[in-house]
Amino acid sequence: MVIEQSNLANIFKALANEQRLKLFILIYKNCKDREKQTDGALSCEKGIRKAFTMACEHLNVSRSTVSHHLKELQNAGLVTCKREGQSFYCEVNKEAVKAIQDFLI
Fold first, then answer.
1. Order of strands, edge to edge, in the sheet holding 79-84?
2. Most CB within 10 Å of its CB: which of 20, 57, 88, 94?
3. Coil, helix or strand at residue 44
4. CB-based burial, 80-101: b 16+ in 10 Å, e otherwise
5. Is residue 44 within 8 Å of 31, Cβ to Cβ?
6. Which helix (H) or strand (E) holds 88?
7. Domain spans of the chain, in order of start
8. For 5-104, which CATH class?
9. Strand, coil or helix: what is 43?
């Protein structure tokens, strides 16, 4: 995946906020941990279940702040989030992470 410079700037701008970076790392590590538990099979399709509750506790911020940060991460193309019933799921956009890695190498 080739990412244009303007998109890279948006990605790095989104990650420049410390709380947003912590939230992204939380989602990313959750996906990695779930992949390990399934012997390499990708089980991250559900990402973090009830991301707001977990993120609020982890970051010690309000639900509205977490909502804002998730929206910024989504706008930058770093995560995707969806609601299924009363649950809310977020996952890392692995193509965006790979593009960042390719850019930095």
1. 48-49, 87-92, 79-84
2. 20
3. helix
4. ebeeeeeebbbbbbeebbebbe
5. yes
6. strand 87-92
7. 5-104
8. mainly alpha
9. coil
Amino acid at 105: I
State both tokens at 30. 């959750």
The segment with the largest mean pLDDT, out of 35-44, 68-77, 89-98, is 68-77
Q: pTM score > 0.90 for this model?
A: no
Alpha-carbon distances of 85 from 29, 47, 49, rounded to whole Å = 24, 15, 12
Query: What would the pLDDT profile of 21-71 be if each residue is shown by its tens digit?
Result: 999 998 888 776 555 544 444 345 455 555 577 778 888 888 889 889 999
Within the chain, where are the H helices?
5-15, 18-37, 51-59, 63-75, 94-104
